[in-house]
TrEMBL record:
A motif (HXTX 2) lies at residues 117-120. The active site is at residues 39, 117. Coiled coil: none annotated. It is an enzyme of class 3 (hydrolase). The keyword Phosphoprotein does not apply. It comes from Candidatus Oscillibacter excrementigallinarum. The keyword Hydrolase applies. The gene is thpR. A motif (HXTX 1) lies at residues 39-42. This is RNA 2',3'-cyclic phosphodiesterase. Keywords: Hydrolase. It catalyses: a 3'-end 2',3'-cyclophospho-ribonucleotide-RNA + H2O = a 3'-end 2'-phospho-ribonucleotide-RNA + H(+). Hydrolyzes RNA 2',3'-cyclic phosphodiester to an RNA 2'-phosphomonoester. One of its GO terms (molecular function) is 2',3'-cyclic-nucleotide 3'-phosphodiesterase activity. It holds the Pfam family LigT_PEase.
Length: 166
């Protein structure tokens, strides 16, 4: 099974991202994640048969709720375009702590700097889009362990476990 740890998004942040996706759709084509799949990934575990280790890592998180903000122009790499998340020390500390714990539990994670972002479209076809994400903020109050399945040509995410921040 394919697993990842992510921050679910509030309705106000999701609305800002859906507005940006609508602008993208008017300017080109690509593979757009449906609203229920929008999230901010903290750690991608890939294929694993050890969900208990990921659950234990998530359960051990010690972090207070913190603010998360989106807004501004999109960023991209090849055909992937995303909404940037305003840099926040609490978010970076949380992601690095979770990733460190997962590595200590034997998970092999990508070895690259953490860059918080929310994917809006993959396999973009068209001119570089002129899209700005409306500004929106939320308070992060929980983190989810999600399973990703490909069913009927669609990516379906199922929450396996969640950790409330206190």
């Amino acid at each position: 099974m394919r697993l990842f740890l992510a921050i679910p998004l509030s309705p106000s942040v999701q609305e800002a991202l859906l507005s940006a996706q609508a602008d993208l759709r008017r300017q080109g084509r690509g593979a757009f994640p449906p609203p229920e799949n929008l999230h901010l990934t903290l750690a991608f575990l890939g294929e694993t048969s050890a969900p208990d280790g990921a659950r234990a890592a998530l359960a051990s998180v010690s972090c207070r709720p913190f603010s998360l903000a989106v807004g501004g122009p999109l960023d991209h790499f090849d055909g992937l375009w995303w909404a940037s998340v305003r840099a926040d020390r609490a978010l970076e500390d949380l992601a690095l702590s979770i990733q460190s714990d997962l590595r200590a539990r034997g998970f092999c994670l990508e070895d690259r700097p953490f860059q918080p972002h929310i994917t809006l479209v993959r396999r973009w076809r068209g001119e570089p889009p002129q899209v700005t994400v409306p500004r929106a903020k939320m308070v992060v109050r929980r983190i989810s362990l999600l399973r990703s399945d490909q069913i009927g040509g669609r990516r379906i995410y199922t929450e396996l476990f969640q950790k409330s921040l206190r």
